[in-house]
Write a structure and sequence with these properties.
mainly alpha, globular
Amino acid sequence: MEMSDRWYFSVDQLTSTPSRKHGVSIEKEMKYRQHAAAFIQSMGNRLLLDQLCISTAIVFMHRFYMFHSFVEVPMLRLSAAAVFLASKAESQQRRLEHVVKLSHCLINGHTATLDVRSTAYQEKEHELIALEQALLLTLGFDLNVDHLHPYVERICKMVNAGKDLTRVSNLIATNSLHLTNMCLKHKPRVVACFCFHLACKWTNWEIEPCSKGKDWFHYIDPSVSYKTLEGLIHEFLDVVEISPHKLKQRLFVQKSYVKDFLTE
């Protein structure tokens, strides 16, 4: 097995995680993952990290909870450690003090303050460092993440997609990380094909077969088929349908919402 393959899990593995052994249902675990991803996004935005770095932190979180239970490891504190580690992995390192203070503020309310000279601050700092170490050990010090956004960009350039279609494709890519655990099941080039395929459906954009008679996705991953893409659409919609996430109503219920996103 290649090192990268260790991060893709079977249906049986995904339905028998450590959290499940602590009585957390599949639906509840998905909500925890969504909450953690939203927290990471919020932290990353405030720390001025780019989306690739934020996505790295989200993937770290998803991988961590395949080996640890949400019951035993607090998701928001672990998420803060994931942001800190990702900022190092993506050469955008932020000061430990800033990460500790920001996570404390977001967890405890925007008016919460933390004096760096206080015992409370020292405890929070030690906790974050300990969780970072736990994350590193769980990841086996493998900090490489093959991201799907570059594949999305590659597809859009390959078919000469306009900026609106590219933006929608990237929007779906980001939300696949926020709302689903697709990154634990499918390789990013496959998910990227799904993202572009769904974006085409949303925008009624059709791609003509190339002169060699092969479909566009063949040039990204020859194993992909329309059946694969339609299956991933159903997988995505099934998860979002039961999601309490505020993006649910804005994301895909009607095709007209795409226009709303493009004009925000």
